[in-house]
Design brief:
Number of helices of chain B: 8
Shape of chain B: flat
CATH topology of one domain in chain A: Rossmann fold
Largest interface: A-B, 28 and 24 residues
CATH architecture of one domain in chain A: 3-Layer(aba) Sandwich
Radius of gyration of chain A: 18 Å
Strand content of chain B: under 5%
Distance between the termini of chain A: 33 Å
Strand content of chain A: 25-35%
Shape of chain A: globular
Largest sheet of chain B: none
Distance between the termini of chain B: 55 Å
Largest sheet of chain A: 6 strands, mixed
Structural class of chain B: mainly alpha
Helix content of chain A: 25-40%
Helix content of chain B: over 70%
CATH superfamily of one domain in chain A: P-loop containing nucleotide triphosphate hydrolases
Number of strands of chain A: 10
Order of helices and strands of chain B: HHHHHHHH
Oligomer: heterodimer
Radius of gyration of chain B: 21 Å
Chain lengths: ~250, ~220
């Protein structure tokens, strides 16, 4: 459903992404792994145009886009078909839980208020946050905020959800509740592209893994063979490091 | 204090207070309202980095902050008629106060806009909103809350600045006091009195500011 080819992105002299390609099929849960600074997050941000790549193409459900010269109109059209979950949640601070979820429906999609609220409550029920409709983000724990952020993503009925290290900012005891929600989504067939450090998620929930280092894709495989029979030397070292808990 | 002075104070109190309620307050409120509009416009233009207009805004702030308010008042009221632009005293004062305070408030607003986390804009984009939708519904409300104390400060400062309008014949509180003093020659008592009335006005405003901050804190307070 999305195919990214030959993405390049530099920040000054630093080559953050070098000829990165990636393929996500409908229903795939793809985990992007790699050490810090490997370009995982930059890749995800380029795919949703929060950063504009220096070059590369994106094929979204058969439509081809140049990732450098894509028009604003196409960007916003694509964004309405996708959703993005941030590392630090980025809930609208001046809006309640309910308003956070309805905002994109009422304002961006011109949905009637009642329908939007019904959809929002459904989405919030799914993540177990329907009892906090009138709370403000600041009144919630990190895990709760992230679950609301996932509900905000779900409510727009996206064709794919991008997750940018969704559990990295959370206290250890709160990670589980967010991963549980993501696991449910995966089982329901939601297409997800997830930048993560959670090895258990990559191994048990995602069906494909992309391993990046120094702005390049080192290895891409289905997750079973990725962990059982890594091909590249660098991948083996990475997996060993992670599994022995030394990273 | 002898009886004569006391009598003068009592007689003048209502006159000065009425000048305050009828002229000083409307002058300050009107000027502040326009200053607020100017400041939001100027701050948003700079924040949104609108080419061309941004330079105009910097120029405006540079000129206004670099010249005295009194000079600006004189220019508009005494200077402009010589090129055929004749404005009555009250509108001249509103114009000057709005343009002057607007420049300072624009800087407060700009700082408040820049203090809104960048992620708010990105989150707005990612739920499909346009830049101006995000600006109006997410960023400006948050910036306004941050700027509220310094905007209140500007309003309080403006109440006192209106006394300068006395120099261009607006019959606000200070001018009323000067007129009374011209008849009775009690400078110490009368200027103390008018200072006291300004103090009352500003005290009430400080209370309102405290109340407003509490109201605005609903989403920013601690757990």
């Amino acid at each position: 459903m999305i195919e990214v080819r030959n993405v390049n992105k530099s920040f000054g002299n630093f080559g953050a992404l070098r000829d990165v390609s990636l393929n996500v099929e409908k229903g795939d849960v793809v985990a992007i792994l790699g050490p810090s600074g490997s370009g995982k997050t930059t890749l995800l941000r380029c795919i949703n145009f929060l950063e504009i790549a220096d070059s590369g193409t994106l094929n979204f459900e058969g439509e081809e886009f140049d990732m450098h010269s894509i028009s604003k109109k196409d960007i916003s059209r694509l964004r309405r078909r996708t959703a993005f979950v941030f590392q630090n949640y980025n809930l609208f601070l001046n809006k309640t839980v309910l308003q956070n979820v309805t905002e994109g429906l009422i304002i961006a999609r011109k949905m009637p208020k009642e329908e939007a609220e019904r959809k929002a409550v459904q989405a919030l029920e799914k993540v177990g946050m329907a009892d906090r409709l009138d709370s403000y983000p600041i009144q919630l724990s990190g895990g709760q905020q992230q679950r609301v952020a996932i509900a905000r993503a779900l409510a727009t009925e996206p064709e794919i959800i991008y997750f940018d290290e969704p559990t990295s900012a959370l206290d250890p005891e709160l990670i589980g509740e967010v991963l549980a929600v993501m696991r449910d989504l995966a089982h329901e067939g939601m297409t997800m592209l997830v930048v993560t450090h959670e090895m258990n998620f990559a191994r048990n929930v995602s069906n494909k893994v992309v391993f990046m280092e120094n702005g390049q894709v080192v290895e891409a495989a289905d997750s079973e063979s990725f962990f059982a029979h890594p091909k590249e030397e660098r991948t083996k070292v990475f997996i060993q490091t992670i599994l022995s808990g030394r990273d | 204090m002898d009886d004569r002075v006391l009598q003068i104070l009592l007689d003048s109190f209502m006159k000065i207070l009425m000048a305050g309620l009828k002229v000083t307050i409307p002058l300050a409120v009107l000027s502040f309202f326009f200053a607020l509009l100017i400041s939001i416009l100027v701050a948003v233009i700079q924040y949104a980095d609108i080419k061309g207009l941004k330079q105009v805004c910097r120029f405006y702030i540079w000129i206004i902050r670099g010249t005295p308010l009194l000079v600006q008042l004189y220019l508009v009221f005494y200077g402009l008629p010589s090129v055929g632009v004749v404005l009555p005293a009250f509108p001249s004062a509103v114009l000057c106060f709005a343009i002057n305070e607007g420049a300072y408030m624009a800087e407060s607003m700009r700082a408040a806009l820049e203090a809104v986390p960048k992620g708010q804009l990105e989150a707005g984009y990612c739920v499909g909103m346009s830049y101006w939708q995000i600006m109006r519904r997410i960023i400006l409300p948050q910036a306004f809350r941050t700027a509220f104390p310094s905007l209140s400060n500007s309003f309080i400062s403006m109440i006192k600045s209106t006394s300068m309008a006395s120099t261009i014949t607006v019959s606000e509180m200070l001018r009323q006091t000067q007129i009374i003093n011209g008849r009775v020659y009690q400078s110490l008592a009368l200027y103390l009195e008018v200072g006291f009335i300004y103090l009352i006005f500003c005290t009430v405003l400080t209370w309102i500011q405290g109340y407003g901050e509490k109201k605005l804190n609903v989403y920013g307070g601690t757990k």
